[in-house]
Amino acid sequence: MNPERIFEEFPAPSYRGTQQQALRDIRDAFAAGNDVVLVRAPTGSGKSLLARAVAGCARRADEGDPSDATRAYYTTPQVSQLDDVAADDLLADLNVIRGKSNYTCILPEERDTPVNQAPCVRERGYDCSVKHRCPYFSDRAIASNREIAAMTLAYFMQTAGSEVFRKRDVVVVDEAHGLAEWAEMYATIQLGPRTVSFWDDLRVPEIDGIERAVRYAENLAGTCERRKDELLAQDSLSPGEVRERDRLQELIGELEWFVSDYRDPQSPTTWLVDQSELRSGTRNGDAESDEPQGGPLTIKPMNPEKYLQHTVWDRGNKFALLSATILNKAAFCRQVGLDPDDVALVDVEHTFPVENRPLYDVTQGKMTYEERDETTPKIARTIVRLMQHHPDEKGLVHAHSYNIQERLADLLRDFGVGDRIRTHDRDGRDAALEEWKASDDPDVFLSVKMEEALDLKGDLCRWQVLCKAPFLNTGDSRVAHRLEEGQWAWYYRTALRTVIQGCGRVVRAPDDYGATYLADSSLVDLFDRAKTDMPDWFEAQVDRMERPDLPAFEPRSALDGTASGTGGRSGSGSGTASRGRANEADSGGRDGRSSSRSSRSGRSSRSSPLADVWDTDE
In what residue span(s) does the Helicase ATP-binding domain sit (predicted)? Predict the structure, then answer.
């Protein structure tokens, strides 16, 4: 790697904000001999441009011995982030490759067939006459031979050990804050009817411990191998059989990895096993057997350092990990298997004026499982008042779960404002999001799990509501295990990370502006509990937080554009008016907000933390 090249490799014609200083700091961190550099860069700092500059510093083929690793990888866990990279003219030399299922066959009779089900994978010995023009193999060939190959983290991990995508000199991971969680997810093994095609023919024992799970995994791997061999013996497979063959191959690898990792005395991985009860009426082996029968299994790794070593750390010489929310360097390094002493941290200054990204306390109570029924209607009424307050501006509601989303949607329709509400389901989320973004109407989008990788710049969205503190589900065995070990700092830090990510959705540039309203009082408690891990620039937002004066509850005015409170109309597309409201925060300006700050010190519950965050509806 040649870090001195970082400025000439920066792809934009000029710098904005603190990009030049960030490049200088990154260069110095690598020049000092660090193999891993964490770049903590807030929203709008141009992380992708910084990433491209770092990737351009990778050793080139003519700069070393033939055996030296050269070139670079760019990877991100977010598909939408990769889409943004592919659409950015400044990043045109990041050659994107996706999984086979994202491409369609170009044979005349196979136009609607994904490449992973095309004749070349269905028929033994098939010789494709147009393979050189196949969109997948073409993109793969380009990406594997160019200076920078760009792909999702999932594809990057799946290609570990590949002869096509070998070790490179530099690996850049964008949105790296969730690297440990993504690794845990990818290494998790699901065993049940949806993942094992012949599940109903298996005799599944009750798994009473990890040793029993290992023995069962060995037996199941052998069964999968035999079934796969049967499929491979056929001259031609149906698309369904192709999917089964590929899933069997994947499952065999997962099971063998689990067995190998568990039996490796040097592996730091802790494995947990969850088993569902066998549903009544389900055929599962010999019904007359005296041996107790068990249901579907989930085998989960915790802190899978060995998995990351194989799929990430062995793939490059130098690493740049970028994110706005790597909140605690030491804790992050421990989770992903890095020595903090060998990792440098570069902090990029936030350049967005704090008055353009205000937080407002509109808390209505706790959204814990026990208190949700009482609090949700109050939040729905608050959303109506916010719609009155922002009559001509689009809004986003982070509902946290589909259960909360559906309940809010029902209440808002009952209040008579349904014409201004949009929702989505699990299958149509992307289409619904794009339709809402494309609309000029001031509709309010009730979203689920959209706190990250969502760019709502300008008038795409001017205000948002966080309905629930995004605590992890304590019913998850991994979460429960960590909390039993007293890892409450990790728990609060993870929730804070999601909140900070969510707050960044509506303010995307130094001259952009947008308000974030906090409706769950547990969010205010969270700020107290996780204060030591809070970035300075976000702490400034929290310190300025106050309660606004909202219009009295009159649903009709949320639709006809006549707000009845002191907020008044913002004016159709009136960025100036909204900007004015943000800038008058301290003076209790024309929107009628109270000038007094909300006191957070008296809000934090000192009872058992678990009582405040228990949530099992995920």
Answer: 11-360
